[in-house]
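Cysteine desulfurase, Marinomonas phaeophyticola. Tokens?
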Amino acid sequence: MSFDVLAVRKEFPILTRTVNGKPLVYLDNAATTHKPQCVIDALVDYYSTCNSNVHRGAHKLADEATRRFEGARDIIAQFINAPSRNSVIWTSGTTESINIVANGLSQLLQTGDEVVVTSMEHHANLVTWQQACAKNGAKLKIVPVNDLGELDVVEYTKLVSPKTKLVAFPHVSNALGTVNPIVELTQIAKEVDALVLIDGAQGIAHGDVDVQEIGCDFYVFSGHKVYAPMGVGILWGKEPVLAEWPVWQTGGEMISTVSFTDATWNTLPFRLEAGTPNVGDAIAFGEAIRWFSSFDLASLQKHEKALIDYATKRAKEFEGLTIIGDASNKVGVLSFVLDAGHPADVGFLLDKQGIAIRTGDHCAQPLMNRFSVPGTARASFAIYNTLDEIDVFFDALCKVKAMLA
Ligand code: PMP
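Tokens:
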């Protein structure tokens, strides 16, 4: 089945707008993706027809809101093949999901324990573990990357030991686009019974994520990177761990019984969902996943591979451009520097031509230091991008180079 990218583009109203008098070429999808009309409609429809607080209302609107909200959880559970809907926890995004896990672990970590992360972490999956380790006298170990931006699996295997309580790594690097061998990394960690957290912020929109097949303990992601609204995300975790770990926030919904002196906790998923959830965005997230799942995955992945392969080919032909991160298995991200000028100037001058990219350290400062660059210019692709847009991008980049010379 072929992937009809022009039909897909028609579903995204924002893609018809112009920027600085030019048609928008949006290549900042690793930062956030745009939303198809059906997702926008789901949000509007929720607020227009059944806005209510969930679970506790004794009226029709509350019932409808609860049904849609819990239905969205079912869609997401199915999408990642979670063994139970109860282990799918609504959060505000990847960052909060990681913090919930770190909160649980930091109450169990002891002096001498170790946590292993990689050199290619987003700050959300690095600083959080630095803090958790610092509180407990635990050590943070960092897996190096090679010059291509691939994890050094041999070094990883050496760093993982019986002292390792948890390993955390990204499914896909937001700064380089490297796709990590997540099943292999998980298996190595499991040999020493370490917990495994996968930061799926960049992985979720590009692949088939089957948490049971991967074998990890936690897989976390944000809605806004997979065509859903901002402000909503998922923590998936193995049920026994989530059920037994210390609770995160306390308040309404997460309790079972309360007296003036004590409280007992609700069952999953509610024990980790204190307070009124982000109902409308969660419903729209469910709609985004329903929409995304309707594509033939093999055709979609073929399209995405064509985008990154073509962009990489053009980048390699471009004189004065250095790709940062040229791993053999990449998706969605072309990070680069130009001899002609600073990434910030490159981004500014591309924007003048209607092209949106991201420049800077991509919340991965240690990784930028590893590659001895202050930051990069990053073009990142989603399913609605076309090969023509990549041509427009490189034509514009030629002009940028000339302007900076
Ligand atoms: N991890 C990775 C790999 C990311 O790309 C991002 C977002 N840039 C995050 C974590 C944090 O996601 P959020 O800001 O949605 O919580």
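The chain has two domains: 5-30+296-404, 41-293.
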